[in-house]
Design goal:
Layout lengths: L1 H32 L1 E2 L5 E2 L22 H12 L5 H16 L1 H11 L12 H10 L11 E4 L10 H21 L21 E4 L6 E4 L5 E6 L2 E6 L7 E3 L1 H14 L18 H14 L1 H11 L4 E4 L6 H10 L15 E4 L5 E4 L7 H15 L15 E3 L8 E3 L5 H20 E8 L4 H6 L4 H17 L5 E6 L8 E5 L3 H10 L15 H23 L5 H11 L8 H4 L8 H4 L1 H5 L5 E5 L5 E5 L8 E7 L4 E8 L7 H19 L1
Parallel strand pairs: 6-9, 8-12, 9-10, 15-17, 17-19
Antiparallel strand pairs: 1-2, 3-11, 3-18, 4-5, 6-7, 7-13, 10-11, 14-20, 15-16, 19-20
């Protein structure tokens, strides 16, 4: 009996301890996801500290182990080099790992023993890359989305009515963010960049641009016929919002009274196409010569976003992709690339052009997903909490829409015309082809037991090889959102397993000698599965911050004397000579992305467009839907090596070749 009592008591104590541990875990989870204001108002975070405070207690982006990075780096080079060249360079890289690399890795780790910015080991370098960039940001930097059509498209006055809903819901969504009520994702991801998504402007400065954010903005700026108009959406105390009907009337008024620009007309927006130093000089002159110009620029900078009222209608998907990426000859001045832009036309089409320096697709998708669901009246089970509601009013500011004025002399007007010529040249040199592959999509890929993204990536490899006959450095972007201030990492999609598969799948294109044994269908199937598996493995590593490129970039920066945080004591320990591994031409070539790709699949997106990132490269933005794959392809027309139309044809052939192999 005593033994029974002791065992029973021990069991009870064990259950009590388990219950206590569970209670502590729940308490910690609640603490991670919730804080309370001094007034007792429950909220998930304090917006004023959202950028800098890790309220979800996410881990920092890890610095990968040097040996692992070197191993993955060398593996990525196998399909890009001849075996003899690979052997020689491998010896250089191994020596780097044992000697200078170890020193650079140690200095990198020591420099991270600080609080505050930069919040990851690559953040300073990433911000420098974007803000120090001096080339024009249209096409080269800014990507674009197009929201799919809904039942409101094509109706009379659909441009104004659809925009009014979108604008109103975006202000309500931003209010949710400001109040600290934006819920974390089911799989916690960094929310710091929501503090800058809306209301931020990129301001050109000589040498390095700056960012200015007005997250509490109460207005938008409309652009029509190269002219700018301010519309107040929220009242001064943020208690009232302009009703959708009243907002629609103001937009329609601008559409009815301001004709679209003629092909050769220019406006101040054309300057945002310029080289950043040139635009910095011009903007300074605009501000210096006129207080009116200063105020107009300040109004644009401080808007929640700008809205481009194009004429339209667009003719097909490729033309629409051009509209949202750079515009047509009659709309290239009707843009302001230093801000997030909503691109609309007379069909009611809605696109978004993103200034890319401070945010990425994960952040864009969260905003647009909630706005889209509310536009469609969707409130699915498990969906985010409803957006805040305001009292509606028919008038926030009786003077709106207010035309913004610019005082432009003849010299500045001539400068605008010269800027337009350069904008036209960039537009005409951008070769876009929007491929809607509608024979099959995600459902078929899953039926084959394959990762949809892996299939598309390998289709791109097959298509490029069929067209160009070689393997080339390939970039796929992935998010490191699971880390505080995590942004992106590279998945190197050209790998040995993929190259072996490509040779098998493209054997019909191969010149063979007598006795050549072709690959069987079973061999092709197995090689394709192995290639997709390798792609999946690399993707998982990259998501965990275990890629190659961000780490090598950081080590190279340290070798050149730039630490994540300025530290003279550590800088004095940096080796004088730049490592031979970084000076070798292979180091530069392996990150010259001749294929730059990204997948931002959502149900509401119909186009994802961005430009190529190298002189003879392709940009491939794609969306994988259940029954189709949408791929926007870009290249430069002045390149004698690339052709977006031929690449689209080769991609279709690649998809059908994969289907033939698995069916």
């Amino acid at each position: 009996n005593n033994d029974f009592v002791r065992r029973a008591a021990a069991g009870i104590m064990l259950r009590i301890k388990e219950a206590q541990r569970f209670a502590i875990q729940v308490s910690k989870r609640l603490a991670r996801s919730r804080c309370f204001s001094s007034t007792g108002d429950s909220k998930l975070y304090d917006f004023s500290h959202l950028y800098s405070h890790n309220h979800l207690q996410l881990p920092k982006l890890p610095v990968p182990d040097l040996k692992s990075t070197v191993q993955r780096y060398l593996q990525s080079l196998i399909p890009l080099m001849e075996p003899s060249e690979f052997q020689k360079y491998s010896e250089i890289v191994r020596k780097f790992e044992e000697e200078e690399g170890s020193t650079l890795q140690s200095l990198l780790l020591q420099s991270l023993e600080h609080e505050g910015y930069p919040y990851s080991y690559v953040e300073r370098y990433w911000d420098d890359m974007y803000l120090n960039l001096r080339c024009p940001i249209p096409v080269h930097v800014n990507p674009a989305y197009n929201l799919k059509h809904d039942e409101d498209c094509g109706k009379p006055k659909s441009q104004a009515s659809r925009l009014s809903k979108f604008i109103s819901l975006s202000f309500r969504w931003q209010e949710k963010v400001l109040r600290g009520h934006l819920e974390p994702e089911k799989s916690p991801s960094c929310m710091s960049f929501f503090s800058r998504l809306l209301g931020t402007a990129r301001i050109p400065h000589i040498g390095r641009d700056i960012l200015k954010t007005n997250a509490h903005s109460r207005h938008v700026v409309l652009i029509r016929g190269n002219k700018f108009f301010q519309v107040q959406v929220l009242s001064a105390d943020r208690s009232e919002i302009l009703s959708c009907e009243a907002l629609e009337q103001q937009i329609q008024h601008v559409l009815d009274t301001v004709p679209p620009a003629k092909g050769n007309e220019v406006g101040v927006g054309i300057f945002t196409w310029e080289d950043r130093d040139a635009w910095a000089n011009t903007r300074k002159q605009l501000e210096t010569c006129s207080a009116i110009n200063q105020e107009s620029l300040r109004t644009i900078d401080s808007a929640l976003f700008v809205v481009c009222l194009d004429h339209g209608p667009h003719q097909g998907y490729t033309e629409r992709a051009q509209d949202i990426l750079h515009g047509q000859m009659n709309s290239i001045s009707n843009r302001w690339f230093d801000k997030l832009q909503i691109i609309s036309d007379s069909t009611g089409a809605l696109g978004v052009n993103f200034e890319h320096s401070f945010s990425d697709g994960v952040v864009w998708n969260r905003w647009l997903s909630e706005v889209w669901d509310n536009m469609q009246g969707n409130q699915a089970l498990g969906a985010p909490a409803p957006l805040p509601r305001f009292s509606e009013t028919n008038c926030v500011d009786p003077s709106c829409p207010v035309a913004l004025q610019f005082e432009i002399d003849s010299a500045m007007e001539n400068r605008m015309r010269e800027a337009r010529k350069r904008a036209e040249a960039l537009t005409l040199n951008t070769h876009t082809h929007m491929l809607r592959f509608s024979s099959f999509g995600k459902e078929k890929f899953k039926l084959w037991g394959l990762s949809p993204d892996g299939v598309v990536q390998m289709a791109i490899q097959i298509a490029y090889h069929r067209l160009h006959g070689r393997a080339v450095p390939t970039y796929e972007s992935c998010s490191t959102k699971g880390y505080f201030h995590g942004r992106t990492e590279v998945i190197r999609s050209c790998h040995d397993e993929g190259s072996q598969m490509v040779r098998a799948m493209n054997q019909d294109k191969r010149n063979v000698s007598p006795g050549y044994q072709p690959f069987t269908r079973n061999q092709q199937t197995e090689l394709f599965k192995n290639a997709v598996k390798r792609q999946n493995d690399l993707s998982r590593l990259a998501v965990q911050g275990q890629g190659v490129d961000r780490h090598l970039m950081a080590l190279n920066k340290v070798a050149h004397g730039v630490l994540p945080v300025d530290n003279k004591l550590l800088e004095a320990k940096i080796p004088a000579a730049i490592p031979a591994a970084f000076q070798h031409q292979v180091f530069g070539y392996s990150s010259t992305w001749l294929i730059s790709t990204s997948n931002v699949s959502t149900t509401w997106n119909s186009i994802f467009a961005f430009g190529p990132v190298s002189e003879h490269g392709y940009g491939v933005g794609y969306l994988i839907h259940d029954d189709q794959v949408l791929l926007n392809l870009t290249s430069w027309r002045d390149s004698k090596e690339t052709d977006s139309d031929l690449f689209a044809k080769s991609l279709e052939e690649a998809f059908f070749k994969i289907q033939e192999t698995f069916e």
